[in-house]
Design brief:
Belongs to the TAF9 family. The protein has 180 residues and is mainly alpha-helical. The chain contains six helices and two strands. It has a domain of 88 residues: Orthogonal Bundle (Histone, subunit A), CATH 1.10.20. Strands 1-2 form a two-stranded antiparallel ribbon. Helix 1 crosses helix 2 and helix 2 crosses helix 3. It is elongated.
């Protein structure tokens, strides 16, 4: 923050003017960069106005810029750079017209509508195919095996049939994300 006893003697004349403008507007505390930012804005504005005034002077065929060119440049800058808001009455009339139209009816119930289950990340993204029970023929063979003395080594054909019946199929949708 800027103190009252800051070195005013070291400041340029333009910075002192900006400082006195801030003081007259009731701004007592500000950062030192504020003065530099106002000076930059001020210089840029003056350069723009003088450049426009020079263009108007050259267009009129005058050898030098005169006060009328500067007034015209300032007037065009004010008209095109700083637009005034419409009067309060106009804004109130526009608001009344807009508020006459009712809001559309809400299709869904209260709350946030959720996407369908297939589009959510919490839905299961796999399918399990659990095999059906073994055919009755295989059940009869096992009963015969029990009757036949309990052969601990069943024939190879019976083992492969049992392995094929107990396999599970797992599939994933194609739209699933690939792991990185």
């Amino acid at each position: 923050m800027v103190d009252k006893e800051d070195g005013d003697e070291e400041l340029p004349r333009d910075a002192k003017i900006v400082k006195s403008l801030l003081k007259s507007m009731g701004v007592g505390e500000y950062e030192p960069r504020v003065i530099h930012q106002f000076l930059e804005l001020w210089y840029r504005y003056v350069v723009d106005v003088l450049t426009d005034a020079q263009v108007y002077s050259e267009h009129a065929g005058k050898p030098a810029i005169d006060p009328d060119d500067i007034k015209l440049a300032i007037q065009t800058k004010v008209n095109f750079s700083f637009s005034q808001p419409p009067p309060r009455e106009v804004l109130l009339e526009l608001a009344r017209n807009r508020n006459k139209m009712p809001l559309p009816k809400s299709i869904s119930g209260p709350g946030i509508p959720l996407p369908p289950d297939e589009d959510t990340l919490i839905s299961p993204n796999y399918q399990l195919a659990i095999p059906k029970r073994p055919p009755p023929q295989a059940a009869e063979e096992t009963e015969e095996d029990e009757d036949g003395g309990g052969n601990p080594n069943p024939p190879q054909e019976l083992r492969t049939d049992q392995q094929q019946n107990t396999s599970q199929r797992v599939s994933f949708p194609l739209a699933a994300k690939r792991p990185r």
